[in-house]
Each structure stands twice: as structure tokens, then as C-alpha cells.
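Exercise 7b. C-alpha cells:
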């Protein structure tokens, strides 16, 4: 079975083609090119490197969020368009779980997180190589997350390109129980995304039409609009 994996949920970008459990081609990058400009060319380059055509894939896996509102939307839009056009099933995977998969050999709690601005994060926590969910995907203050992790009273491996933004605070609250993953694990890999998708039951092709991103919070523009409406109502 041939999979196409797409992850543009945050600043890094990764796309991969996996055939029968083997990575055929994969692109992973963390450069300052917006996904609206770079994502589709990366997919095209991927197929070129693999010497394959889109029609050859059997299913699509995409990072469904949380993360950058724009990044998630772009990845999901590309994935839905390809899946619907090619009449292939589409599987969504948590962007946090996909990142945690990079560190699945860690014997303990793995905490992937993304900067959601203003001292907020998107985060989750998993345990062991089976990525058993300890804390589900959510949007929280960094201190709220750390208090929850502190209550576990276990060593926690933090992973992601945004960890350094919060590292001083993480160490202040968790002390020696906080471990920084190697920077080599910080970038999400679309091949890991596919590996997670392979464990899911394939949905129908018709389900592609109803697939929606999982932002875990409303967009800032929508939040501002709601605030304005409340002011008007008052």
C-alpha cells in the first residue's frame, strides 16, 4: 500500500511517500518559506524524487492540527483536494502525536508542544513506544500545562522547535524531571505520520468531504469578532 503523508501544521514542513512500510522519499525542512508558497511545490518535488505519480497512491495521511491556523488549513486543503480528486481515503493524525512519535523510544512521558503565543501552548503527553495518551491535545497556559505534568511526578521529555521559548519556565517548575529532547527530534516527520495512520481503520472516500481540521481553539480573528459582538450587545 502506498501512502502520501503531509504535515504543515507548524513552521516546519514534511511530506513523505511510504510504500508497504518502507520510506520511498521524504522531505523535511524548517526554512522561512510560507506553506502557501512552499507546500505544493514540496509535494510535487516529492513525487519527482520518488519517480511516481499521484494516481499511484492508495491513501493520504495529514496532520489535522493543532498548530498554526494557516499551516493546518493549508495542509488539510491540499490533502483533501488530492484525496477527493484521486478518490482515495484520507486519515487525519494529531500533529502533536506525530511529533511525539519521533521520541517513542523514550521510556517515560513525552510532551510535544507548540507555541500558541501569549504564554499559551498547544500540548499533549504520551507514554512509551505505544504513545499511550496521558494528556490529550489541548490549548493551555504554559503554567497550567506544567502544573499538570508536575502532578505526574515523573521525568518528562519535551520535544519540538518551540521548547526553547519556554525552557526556563519548564526548568523552574519541573527541575530535574524536565528533559530536553535532542534537536534532531524536533522536526515532525511525515513518515511517522503515515506510520500512525497505518494503524487506523481506513475511512470511506466519501468521508473526505466531511473532514475538518482540529484547531483546538477558535482562530484569533473569530475570537476578536466574538469580543466585538459582546461589546455591541452590552
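Sequence design result:
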Amino acid at each position: 500500500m502506498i501512502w502520501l503523508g503531509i504535515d504543515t501544521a507548524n513552521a516546519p514542513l514534511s511530506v513523505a511517500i511510504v510504500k508497504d512500510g518502507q520510506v520511498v522519499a521524504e522531505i523535511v525542512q524548517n526554512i522561512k518559506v510560507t506553506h502557501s508558497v512552499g507546500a505544493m511545490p514540496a509535494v510535487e518535488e516529492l513525487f519527482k524524487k520518488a519517480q511516481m505519480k499521484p494516481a499511484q497512491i492508495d491513501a493520504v495521511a495529514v496532520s489535522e492540527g493543532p498548530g498554526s491556523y494557516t499551516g493546518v488549513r493549508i495542509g488539510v486543503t491540499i490533502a483533501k483536494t488530492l484525496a477527493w480528486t484521486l478518490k482515495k481515503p484520507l486519515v487525519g493524525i494529531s500533529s502533536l502525536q506525530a511529533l511525539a512519535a519521533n521520541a517513542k523510544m523514550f521510556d517515560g512521558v513525552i510532551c510535544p508542544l507548540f507555541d500558541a503565543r501569549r504564554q499559551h501552548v498547544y500540548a499533549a503527553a504520551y507514554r512509551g513506544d505505544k504513545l499511550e495518551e496521558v494528556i490529550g491535545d489541548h490549548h493551555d497556559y504554559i503554567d497550567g500545562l506544567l502544573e499538570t505534568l508536575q502532578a505526574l511526578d515523573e521525568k518528562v521529555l519535551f520535544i519540538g522547535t518551540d521548547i526553547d521559548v519556554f525552557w526556563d519556565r519548564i526548568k523552574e517548575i519541573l527541575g530535574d524531571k524536565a528533559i530536553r529532547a535532542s534537536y534532531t527530534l524536533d522536526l515532525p516527520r511525515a513518515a511517522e505520520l503515515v506510520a500512525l495512520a497505518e494503524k487506523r481503520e481506513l475511512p470511506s472516500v466519501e468521508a473526505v468531504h466531511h473532514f475538518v481540521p482540529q484547531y483546538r481553539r477558535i482562530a484569533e480573528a473569530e475570537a476578536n469578532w466574538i469580543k466585538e459582538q459582546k461589546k455591541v450587545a452590552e
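Instructor comment: The longest strand covers residues 132-141. The chain has two domains: 2-95+187-223, 98-185.
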